[in-house]
Amino acid sequence: MAFGEVDGYPEGSLFESRDEVRVAGLHRHLVKGIAGRPDEGADAIVLNQGYEDDVDYGDLVIYTGEGGNDSSTGRQIADQKLTAGNAALVTSELNEYPIRVIRGYKLKSPYAPQSGYRYDGLYFVKSHWTETGKSGFEIIRFELNKFNGHQLPPHSNQNLPLGNDNPEVRPSVVNKVVRDRAVTRSIKEMYDDKCQVCGIQLACEGGNYSEGAHIKPISKVHGGADKLKNILCLCPNHHAQFDRGGFCISDDFSLIGIEGRLNVHPEHQIEISNLQYHRNLFPSLLRDG
Amino acid sequence: MAFGEVDGYPEGSLFESRDEVRVAGLHRHLVKGIAGRPDEGADAIVLNQGYEDDVDYGDLVIYTGEGGNDSSTGRQIADQKLTAGNAALVTSELNEYPIRVIRGYKLKSPYAPQSGYRYDGLYFVKSHWTETGKSGFEIIRFELNKFNGHQLPPHSNQNLPLGNDNPEVRPSVVNKVVRDRAVTRSIKEMYDDKCQVCGIQLACEGGNYSEGAHIKPISKVHGGADKLKNILCLCPNHHAQFDRGGFCISDDFSLIGIEGRLNVHPEHQIEISNLQYHRNLFPSLLRDG
Q1: Beta strand A211-214 with B202-204: parallel, antiparallel or unpaired?
Q2: Which of A14, A86, B126, B156 to pair with A21, CA 20 to 30 A apart?
Q3: What is the pLDDT of residues B238-253, one digit of tens each?
Q4: What domains, with CATH codes, occur in chain B?
Q5: Best mutation site among A148, A176, A205 for testing chain B: the one with the most B CBs within 10 Å?
């Protein structure tokens, strides 16, 4: 894979066909939406209608994974799996690889080009999850956020990158969910900064460190509440793992995917439906467990 | 402490004296710069000359801690300690508590008010470290970043906060250091996502997760390089702990503050002076260890 910008084709570059996009080096395939390999990651996607569940907010895209659809009608006829291009996108998520986004004229979105294809810059996969699509089958969805601020230099996997001695500081606009810090504070106090999964209390200079982790994500797409009933006190490791489907929690607080049981304070009233919502985002754990 | 905005005193409110600031409920003291307690955190600071090492970039403030200065001349005559107001600011850092920033007329900065005092909104402590000040004595410095985007509601420690069922999503501008993702990628590949401190490989859905941690921070203030010689592959826990002075690394890669030794790949040429720079940020570890 070759991640990042391609010389000579800045954001906004227009192309008449997928073949022109391919020859330019922006996306290696002629038909497939995702360009990538499970072990190496994905470096480009094309948004061009494709799936009935796609959403396009411009800088924020909800992209549906590949597979399970009838090639002639495009309709979903089976569950999608975390393999091939979908697995490649997850690899890019875990490693924060940049993904070139190309929009095509068939896309039902105000951001679609009138004709042909347009390269729209670099995005990162912020998260992925599974849900039941409009078709009734499981689909894998990816939230992609545009990387604002500048063009990343082109890179390949071939050589060790040199990096920068003086990395630049640039202002960039991010869409932040406005969190109530007092809620996070009180959950951390309730547990004295001890992780509800492993009990670790991470000692730093001047105090302990823990994180408030939302069970049902509070992003625009999922709409979880920023309230105690939807927040856990976790160490950064278990927070990272929980958000990325490394484990889930059953209604009796036993853990799925890893050993153990969630420690719950008597005054901490967790809303069970939020645990259910989170489990549904990562159904492979339930199947494999 | 009472964190956050105070009703009736929006950002930009002007005051003739410290006493007016105090009566308004913005800062509890008449002379001290930091309002806070080590165990509860700090909720407000006044920038008003004070220390010769202070820096004011507006939305980014480098604030010098308290103590060690002669009360009549203001000159530094002893090392500062991580106690009292300084410890309160660290508690606010670890818990992400908002801090009201008030600028006074004596401040040598383009952002100082012409006379009296001005409430300038909420900031967060991004990091703290120790350095040798212009005086030759150790001072503790705090990087504060302005919380952009909106006014946080007022809060006290008295009751459990209610939080929000539908937290708002707002665009806000952040100053990001432009990191070369290819550098982080290659460090994670080199170690196969295994933490160089504890060896953990954090399993998530679809792959493993690790983080690229800079040894000498790459923020504007510290100016570390975004290169392999300045990056470690760490799990989120050890990354959080390393950045917050929970442990340091000696030149022979043995750990200071926690047990163990850094695992270093033969092709990973860590610049030893960066380890030294990081150790100097947290000298209490060396003294206590």
Answers
A1: unpaired
A2: A86
A3: 999 999 999 999 999 9
A4: 14-146 (2.30.280.10), 181-288 (no CATH)
A5: A205
